[in-house]
């Protein structure tokens, strides 16, 4: 086992192959990562192997190991490359709610473009430069309110967990629709509808019945469902801030455009 096997890729300087007359040009981590991301986008992570990526680049698998030592390293690079698509200002605006909303919305957008990334994002921290940039921005948005760093990290983690789980669920519905030909509305009204009707008639589950008869959020477009949940998460964060700066706001009633109550 080499000394690099127990060292994160972010501590290993990239060694570019020097090209000269009669020699094929070398590759870069960025080129290898981009090829891997494109394969994952088209075919999923199971298709991402060093052999496949090498074939995409027109070289042999063994030649890639001088740039990326293992598939785990490649996954770290891929995750961080997708996080790099999260566009944020250089520093927070001073409006923490606006700043954290931006992080969440951008996380959703990147995740929908690269569905495989959401499934891998929480396997362990990658600590790549893009991941650190986003984390630094989000934590800085909550700095200055008298919270200790554990409180800040916990609140940012709550936001991240919501964004990833909501997008993971949205991707699941998209995949289900692709596989079966039924979107959420068709599944609810057709496939599972008769069974739900039986549950309602039984009277055994009054809260479930109430949700079936009264709930509006499940019928909203995906982006509005995401924002509805996000508003509740932000109000949860507000509860951990001083009263003036952390005042909760009304959660938008997406069907009418009006707040439906403040926490």
Could you give a short description of this structure?
Helices cover 59% and strands 2% of the residues. By secondary structure, the protein is mainly alpha-helical.
Average pLDDT, to the nearest integer? 86
Strand content: under 5%
Largest sheet: 2 strands, antiparallel
Global shape: flat
Radius of gyration: 23 Å
What class, by secondary structure content? mainly alpha
Number of strands: 2
Q: Widest sheet: strand order?
A: 1-2
Oligomer: single chain
Give the helix level as a range of percent. 55-70%
Write the element-wise H/E pattern from the N-terminal end onward.
HHHHHHHHHHHHEE
N-C termini distance: 56 Å
Total helical segments: 12
Q: Flag low-confidence runs.
A: 256-263
Structural overview:
It is a single chain. It is flat, with a radius of gyration of 23 Å. A hairpin with a 4-residue loop joins strand 1 (252-253) and strand 2. Helices cover 59% and strands 2% of the residues. The longest helix is centred in the middle third of the chain and has 32 residues, at 149-180. The chain has 12 helices and 2 strands; from the N terminus they run H-H-H-H-H-H-H-H-H-H-H-H-E-E. The chain has helices at 29-43, 50-57, 61-64, 71-83, 96-113, 115-121, 129-141, 149-180, 184-191, 193-202, 206-214, 222-238; strands at 252-253, 258-259. A two-stranded antiparallel sheet has the order 1-2. The protein has 263 residues and is mainly alpha-helical. Residues 256-263 have low confidence and may be disordered.
